Amino acid sequence: MTCIQPHEVLKASGVAEEFKQGMGTAAFVSHQWVGYDHPDPDFKQFRVLQEALTYIMTELESIPPDGYSRVICHCQPLPTQAFRTSTIFVWYDYFSCPQLGSKASGHLGEEDDLSKAVGSIPSYVLRCEYFFALCPVVAAVEELWAQKALRPWELVEWELSESLITCAVFRGGSAEFVQRLVELRANVNHQRTRSLLPASNFEISEGLGALQYRLGREGVWEAYCYHCNGMTPLMSAVLCGQHESAAALIAAGARLDLVNSRNWTAADFGRERSPPDFLHEAFAGCTEGCERVAAVARGYSVMKI
């Protein structure tokens, strides 16, 4: 194979097959798209995968774990004999998910075949024995900026705004941190947009979390994964119990009327998590309490330093 062709072409030619137990071994390939409407227009990423699999299936006797996995997790080298004695079926999104009839908007829909396939990715992962992270260094800065329709400095602002959302998830939110990001031009009303196909291992983890939420596991992480499309920093802070961060965001001008893709506002997340009085007051239209809490929290942080 010397070029990446879509699912429909490979299926018509008999190259793409429906994998069933007993046919061999399945391997899931996670990667980031290099182009806007094509995962690997110059065949740079996939060539690396071809070379790696060739090396595994011919010369390498075992795949050594990285230092952290070996020392901390006590992982052992993975023998490669199974790659030579069993047929390997590779799951790769552009090969395995319908492409030509997908929506041009680039956002998840409810009914199109591509959206259904993307929603099934966690089940595909569970059926695979191997999980490959294909992440070679590929020079694609122009494509990334074109995809996001952002200039370099706007891309930095986008990354800072995303940080306002993720810092609450990993309990790194504080009034001082929010203030610093806002000073660096992070947008307190930024809304996260989940891409049509997972572009990283983190987004695959989100897909698994969303599936667990649908199956009844309603922890904070699972709720975040289910609601993250369209989520604002304020929604994330309220959901994850980062009340100081939420107060600082409201004091910095975070809007209370925005909704995510599930049509939830920050107040809706508050009703699920029993926030303190100053947030209840803010949801009712009175933000003075949040402004006081944010000011005190910033002052306390400065005193601690």
UniProtKB/TrEMBL annotation:
The keyword Protein biosynthesis does not apply. Keywords: ANK repeat. The keyword Protein biosynthesis does not apply. Pfam families: Ank. InterPro entries: Ankyrin_rpt, Ankyrin_rpt-contain_sf. ANK repeats lie at residues 229-261. It comes from the Eukaryota. This is Uncharacterized protein. The lineage of its organism: Eukaryota, Sar, Alveolata, Dinophyceae, Suessiales.
